[in-house]
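Suppose you are handed a protein chain with no further information: no name, no annotation, nothing but its sequence. What can you learn? This example shows the usual starting point.
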Amino acid sequence: MPSVAARHGVIHYSDFSGQAQGAQRWPPLLLVHGAGGSRLDWPAELRRLPGARVLTLDLPGHGRSTGPGRATIEGYAQDVRLFLDRLGLERAILAGHSMGGAIVQHLALSNPDRVVGLVLIATGSKLPVDPALPQRILDAPDATLDWIIANAWGPQITDDQRALARQRIAQTPPSVLRDDYLACQSFDVRDRLHQITAPALIVGAADDRMVRVSFSETLAERIPHATLVVIQGAGHMVPLERPAEVARAITEWLEAGQW
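A reasonable first move is to predict its three-dimensional structure. Written in C-alpha cells, the prediction is:
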C-alpha cells in the first residue's frame, strides 16, 4: 500500500484510477473517513466509481497510518492538505463522512482554491457529541464502543456487520478515538456555510441517530450550490449500509456538474 510522509509519521492510502472503466471524466475524488474509522469505511462501490480517480486515506493514528491523532478538525484538515500536496493534486473533489465531513468543510472554507466540489455524508456544520463521550472512551472503553456501534448503524444491521464494525473501531487507540470526538465537539461553522463556494452534494440518512438528517437539511439550505439526497432506511454508517445508493447519488451528481 502506498504512503506519503506526514507531519509526524506516514499516511497510508489507496488510489483507484478507474482506468479499467474508461477515461477519467472528473477531478480526483478524495474520501475522508469519520471518527475512529479508516479507509475501510469506504466500500468497493465508492472506491471504484467508473471514470473516476478515487483516493482513500487513513488519517494519522488511524488504520495503517502512524503518528498521533489530532484533537481539532483544523489539525486533520492540515494533514489532508499536506496529503494533497504530497500527491501533487492542486484541486480535488473532497468527500467526507461524519468527522470527515467536518474536515472537508474546513478545507472548503480555508482553502477554497483547492476544493472543486464537496460530498458531505451524514455530517453537519456542527456535530452533536455528548460532552461526556470522550472521557467515557477512556473510563469504560468496552461499553462505550458497544454504545457507539449500537447508535451508528441503522435498524437492519446484521450480526456479522456489527461484529466487524466493533472489531475495526477497537483497533483505533482509545486516546485517538477520544481526541476525534473532542475535535468533533469543538467544530462549528454554522455561521460560515454561506461562504462555501464549491458545489456540494449532501447525503443524509433518514434513520441516523448520531447526526440527524436535519443536520443534512441545514447544510443543503445554507450552502449556496447544494444538492440534497436522503437515503431511506439507513443509519449513520450509510456508506456501508447503502453503498450502491450512495455511489449512484455521487455518480449522478458528478455527471450533472460542470467539471
